[in-house]
UniProtKB/TrEMBL annotation:
Pfam families: Hikeshi-like_C (PF21057), Hikeshi-like_N (PF05603). Residues 132-184 form the Hikeshi-like C-terminal domain. This is Hikeshi-like domain-containing protein. It comes from Acer yangbiense. Belongs to the OPI10 family. It comes from the Eukaryota. Residues 19-90 form the Hikeshi-like N-terminal domain.
Length: 188
């Protein structure tokens, strides 16, 4: 039905590596791959396999869960978008940890995949909207800090050079070209 790859960390993994919860839900225990270092895994590529046809009104939704947290939607694939590289902004662990019996295993990070109605994706995408908002705030903060270092004061007004936006954008682009990980830091 589907497979996943953790870029720079794994070979393709098919559905057989996931535990099937029921007909439409699968779970991958991250402890299997990285133990407690799950939060170092920042991306997953999910893809539909060639011989599988997802009904046109369905999608495969991907969720992540840190130990003790709720599942959080991170993206989906559909027939129109049969593969996707998704960011994994792991939620803070804790929160709803329950007292466990001594024989039960400690909670671990998980990736969940479920078949959902395509119509429900827009309501699930609140997380993506928040991620975009965080990205915009971080870029804005970067611009503000850059501008602030060139500011002068004229009465109760801050004065910046006319070419400040051009200089900031050029520096921003150069840094992104030199360091591919730089932009990923803004998206977290």
């Amino acid at each position: 039905m589907f497979g996943v790859v953790f870029p720079n960390r794994s070979f393709p993994i098919d559905i057989s590596t996931f535990s099937q919860i029921d007909t439409f839900h699968w779970i991958l225990d991250m402890n299997t791959f990285v133990g407690e270092a799950y939060d170092q895994v920042r991306e997953v590529c999910i893809f539909l396999l060639n011989n599988f046809t997802l009904p046109p009104d369905k999608a495969l939704a991907v969720y992540i869960q840190s130990p003790g947290s709720q599942f959080m939607f991170v993206g989906a694939v559909t027939l129109a978008r049969p593969s996707a590289v998704l960011s994994l902004p792991w939620p803070e662990p804790g929160g709803q940890l329950q007292l466990m019996a001594p024989e039960s295993a400690p909670p671990t990070a998980k990736i969940g995949v479920s078949v959902v109605d395509l119509a429900t994706l827009s309501s699930l995408d609140v997380v993506a909207e928040k991620r975009i908002e965080r990205l915009a705030m971080k870029v804005g903060e970067n611009l503000f800090n850059f501008m602030q270092s060139f500011c002068g004061i004229d009465g109760n007004k801050l004065v910046v050079p006319m070419d400040i936006l051009d200089r900031w954008f050029k520096k921003f682009q150069e840094r992104a070209k030199r360091d591919p990980e730089y932009l990923k830091g803004f998206a977290l």
